[in-house]
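Appendix B. One record, verbatim.
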Amino acid sequence: MKLYDFDGMFDKKISAFISKNAGRLSEEQLEDLIPREYEKFGDTPLKSIGMSPRAYYAAMGAEELVKCLRAHVKNGVPVPGFLCREAERRPECTELLLPLLDGGEEGLKPYIVTILGDNERAVPMYMELVLREQDGDFKDGLIEMIKQNADLVKERALECYSRGEQRQLMLEILSCVKKRDERVFNVLIKEFRGGDYVQMLAGYLAAYGDERALGYLYEKIEEEGLPFIEFQEIKYAIEALGGEYTGGRDYSGDPAYELVRSHGAPSADIFSAFEENAEGGKKQ
């Protein structure tokens, strides 16, 4: 089996084209052009192999596709998108790739996740990986997949939360559960009323979407000494759940409020800047 860096071949071709047409194409035109040309490249027969990149992988069986993927990773040859796409459309590849999520070769798992996506059989395995994964970027990708299918791991998330294992992450996952569950609602409310990370937890209540949380949000937004950032996030949560807050509060002197006013921009646009500036660039 020969390994081809088809994406590298395409990059050379498109780079040459862009250099040749420098100044003639706008950034927007290039954004449209590159994906379109990549698809055309996938169906263009190449003299070096006598077939197109897409046809090269279509001719392989499932076992050969997985073997090819593993060989690319093992030998440090970039994995072509056409290989991943072909494996993605083969149910047989799913059966072969699932076991490799646990204990496969180093560097292989991100490609397996790309291929399996939000496959319902893979999501519980993603959850187990998240609980022990150290690579931040890879872990973030897994979390996004899990959040799209949070109901599949609800019981595991509740179990981890009760044990105090990555509790903030478990709350984030539980906030994405779609089927209503009193246990999930009670956990989110308990944490919100606990007083820590109020703005984050208000966002979780908004994401969960249970209108019963409105009473707790209204109660919290009236508290004396509520920081402006927390006020804004609670107000957003109220509106997201179909409520409305019409009370007025004076935040003159609050650093976040003054930053908003000085920028003359919506608060959501500058909250991150405020947090980065606070405590020497460390987020609150």
